[in-house]
Amino acid sequence: MIVVRGVIQGVGFRPFVYNTARSLGLAGWVQNEADTVRIEVQGPTARLERFLNALRRDAPPQARVDEAQVTPVATGDDRDLEFRIRSSDAHGPPRPMIPADLATCAACREEIATPGERRYRYPFTNCTNCGPRWSIITELPYDRPRTSMAGFRMCPDCEAEYRNPADRRFHAQPIACPRCGPRLDLFAAPAREAAEQAHADYGPATLRDCPAPSGRASAQNLRATGPRDPLDEAALAVRAGGILAMKGLGGFQLIVDATNADAVARLRRRKRRPDKPLAVMLASLDEVRARCEVSEEEARALESPQAPILLLRRRRDALAMADIADAVAPGNPYLGVMLPYTPLHHLLVAQLGRPIVCTSGNVSEEPMAISVDDAVDRLGAIADVFLVHDRPIVRPVDDSVARLLPEGFQLLRRARGYAPLPIELEKSGPTVLAAGGHLKNTVALALGSQVVVSQHVGDLDNVASAQLHRRTVEDLLDFFRAKPDAVACDLHPDYASTRLAEALALQWGVPLVRVQHHHAHVAACMAEHRLQGPVLGLSWDGTGYGLDGTVWGGEALECDWGEQPKRDGDSLRDAARHGGPEERDAKARPAPRLASHVAVDFRRVAHLRTFALAGGDRAVREPRRSALGLLFEMFGEDAGRHAASWFSPEELRGLLGILGRP
Length: 662
Known about the structure:
The protein is an alpha/beta fold. Helix content is 27%, strand content 20%. The protein has 4 domains: 2-85, Alpha-Beta Plaits (2-Layer Sandwich); 184-197 and 213-389, DHBP synthase; 422-607, Nucleotidyltransferase, domain 5, CATH 3.30.420; 618-659, no CATH class. The protein has 19 helices and 26 strands. The termini are far apart.
């Protein structure tokens, strides 16, 4: 008996085991379980040794075998005569080894581009080596009935491929074709003219203060564009300068022609994103190299199954970037670039024959839309046309963002292709839910010796983002069937993530651990790189609420792994067990009280000198306020003379009044 742990579901591992065993003439079976793959294999000792070596050496490219426990078993009279794949067993909580979504493989790319192939130009082509995973899984084990493909019944041709050990779609759970799989549709946006007029009322100077647009419509009132192929129609709309809202792998995206300056400006105006850089999708690595400086390591990252947005330095030759509109990344020496990562993207880019802007389907700072109704309601005043499909998206998964530094590859936004693959810790610990910070939020769940980091949630500045944050927490806990022994949150008392963490800790009767923002950054780096400490960490990540109640920023911290926090002499796990609501009689239990403390296993060695901030946390987004605070310390009320061009007279008077308070 062999029990295998690692990234082994949704990556073609069972078909690999089946084919390997059959090729060696071995009998037995392989079965998915909630957190493992279990194999019973029977045969001569020499062949069994070859089988074990193959498991460790020849597993599929996206598989990761972390552990293979081998136990001899007696076969008796019920010895298997051949090797087979057993139905999955869903008992037991899953371990955090869920496959991430994978970019389209070379074989599928060739298939959709070859006339006469059954899946020629089919936008949902996939196999065991590529396609949707985390964005469609509802629970483990990873089988079709536990994904959003459950409602699509396989046609006889797909069924035959699914059951053919020699086919690369052998046990490919999202398998589909034009006959039985998801389909595209295209609709015109509702009330386009009225929406355009509404946005024209706001000038660029007041763009940040515009109310969020709303389509005020539903999928039912969308107007079909006509009988033509939806993909052809979508390409025509983009080529004509329109804004396309496309339902992709993990959510809706807004797409425009990157060479059309007017289209890019229109997208910025409607999306309320006046200056942040936009990502560009190019058809091939050669297209990227024609415009940007690309090292071999960067090329590998672009073409990897993760296919992130990669920040690349523009080529110094001005002509190289001549076709990309300046408004895509104004004044920025870098360009965020990605290659097509789904068949739908490949087909659209090939049809257009030009670079496209491909950005999240949302109003700036809001979550990405994943359902058609939500997209029409929130993007109806942004998009001109909607390209949609009928495969449900289980959870929003945005594009990952990365860059290559001298120290190596660095993820700036961990989402598609990487989430929810875990980070390994040096040792096992209690189950802890970490609620994340306020900006660029992600949620983390520590389970044993692994930490699952959620896909990117975003800034929690609005109700929709706070609701997504709560759903992400619930999704992780439900998926892994986890009961936290403690909850961790930022030290800032008024963050949405802090308030949720307090409510959950009180509800579950577990300790709340408050962690200072910059300390969290250093501790996270220590965990990710398995540093034992003590270390000197330089945390220069903007501002964070300090232990002394002031705003910290630019910190030098000496950090070490302290003892696990305790309450009344118990470990976190014991505290949770003794204080949990399930184990106590409700009548005898006193009113719940939040047990919280601050993690202080660090020493503040040095920091930037404190100074007054005009408007507190708003200075994080508006550096001019920080500059005004420094000028006020130097010149007092005369600081207004130096900052007069930065603010309106009313703003400046108000801010100077705030700074002048004792």
